[in-house]
Design goal:
With 182 residues, this protein is α+β, with helices and mostly antiparallel strands. The protein folds into two domains: 66 residues, Arc Repressor Mutant, subunit A (Orthogonal Bundle), CATH 1.10.10; 105 residues, Beta Polymerase, domain 2. The strands form two sheets. Strands 6-5-4-7 form a four-stranded mixed sheet, with helices on both faces. Helix 4 packs across helix 6. It is elongated, with a radius of gyration of 19 Å. It starts with 10 loop residues before the first helix and ends with a strand.
Length: 182
């Protein structure tokens, strides 16, 4: 791993970047970043400096205030958002592995275009007993604090989807990312 991206993949680095990644139009001053991230002043100051140096954050000044915001066009930013979305969902849904259930992320969160208020679109392919899936979906909503729009199909219904709703099927297939598969 190069020195340039090493801080990104630390627990503290991800914690701080999460603040910026899903609020792409927001600007935060250092004190606010400390409060929202729960990290120490020294850690936040060091990470803000490193992320700015790597081009992930831009700095603007308003009076005496130094404000930081994410550089949405940075090639790493979109990939980080996707990585964090997939990782957060996998942590919740991994309990369903081996239960003849498939879970896919699609839509803006799969493309890295999502924002703080964007919902998470999930495709779930499961058999007729969905009670465990519904419990895990509720757990996922609480963990990621975002609305989850889940569509659930039986394997047979999903196999027929290209004939019954080709537009939806193509939109899902275009950018879906497997969270768990059987």
């Amino acid at each position: 791993m190069t020195a340039a991206i090493k801080p990104i993949f630390t627990r503290n680095g991800i914690r701080l970047l999460n603040l910026f990644l899903f609020s792409p139009t927001a600007e935060f001053h250092q004190a606010e970043a400390i409060k929202r991230s729960g990290l120490s002043r020294t850690t936040v100051a060091r990470l803000l400096k490193e992320f700015r140096k790597e081009g992930l954050l831009r700095v603007t000044r308003k009076g005496d205030l130094t404000l930081y915001s994410i550089v949405s066009g940075h090639p790493v930013v979109r990939q980080l958002k996707i990585f964090l979305n997939v990782t957060n969902l996998y942590e919740v849904f991994q309990s369903l592995s081996g239960h003849d259930i498939e879970v896919y992320l699609y839509g803006s969160a799969a493309r890295g275009d999502d924002e703080e208020r964007s919902d998470i679109d999930l495709l779930i392919i499961a058999g007729p007993n969905n009670q465990e899936v519904l419990k895990v979906l509720e757990k996922a909503r609480r963990k990621i604090s975002r609305e989850i729009n889940a569509v659930i199909y039986s394997p047979a219904d999903y196999a027929r989807l290209p004939e019954t709703d080709n537009l939806f099927y193509n939109n899902v297939e275009k950018d879906k990312i497997a969270i768990i598969t059987w």
